[in-house]
Amino acid sequence: ILASEPFTFLVGENKKKFTVHAALISYHSRPLGAVVNKHLLEAKVSCLLEDVDEDTFVRFAQYAYTGDYFSANPEIVLEKAQHTTQNRSPVLQKSETTGFKSQRKQLWEQFTRRDYIVLSSPQARTKQEPYHNYTEVFLCHARIYMFAEKYNIEPLKALSLHKLQQILIHYVIYKDRIEDFVSLLRYSYSLPASQGSVNSLGLLVTQYAACVVEELGKSHTFFLALEESGPLGKDIIKQVLWRVV
């Protein structure tokens, strides 16, 4: 693989150059490998990937060479706000940890037990603080999932879902940071890949949303997202109904 011909991708609006080994691309993705081989047969050593952002392609390249990729770091928000903790996770609610398991707790256990077969080492988690904006942390995994879905890279899809699941399991919901997760919901249902049938990313985020819908419902941004996407609202309702029937 390392002896194969180098190939350059021009990525994003700025057409930034990234050079990787052609055989490595073909090994991980048949569709993307076919694009590379077609260009090489035509004596072209580069191609344009305008619909992929630079950070997502860097993470794909990290995965291609190492079998893993690094998550984005949370952004530090400096403005003063009322950082009120709404919930750490449904499983930690005192009223639901005694007696019979509530439907909410059962749904949470289903979410935490989702099993994605991955071979990567766990990445050290940044301690979450009330002033952390997690939007890019969430979206970096969603974008790499969509990239992997488009180019048929099943192990990378599983890895991105696993990483996102682990973040959500430990995620602390703060009242003024609910919009970070809502951004993930919006993105998951904004692309053609999520129309018609729910993909694995949509199932993951809507199941989490159903687990914490009481907290999300305190945000006007959440209701705006439901109004914008009919499929999103329908899929969350399906998950919520499981808790009450």
UniProtKB/TrEMBL annotation:
The segment(s) forming the BTB domain are: 5-73
Q: Name one Pfam family in it.
A: BTB
Query: Matching InterPro entries, A to Z?
Result: BTB/POZ_dom, SKP1/BTB/POZ_sf
Q: Which Gene3D superfamilies match?
A: Potassium Channel Kv1.1, Chain A
**Lineage top rank: taxon:** Eukaryota
Name of the protein: BTB domain-containing protein
Species per Swiss-Prot/TrEMBL record: Lepidopterella palustris CBS 459.81
Highest lineage ranks of the organism?
A: Eukaryota, Fungi, Dikarya, Ascomycota, Pezizomycotina
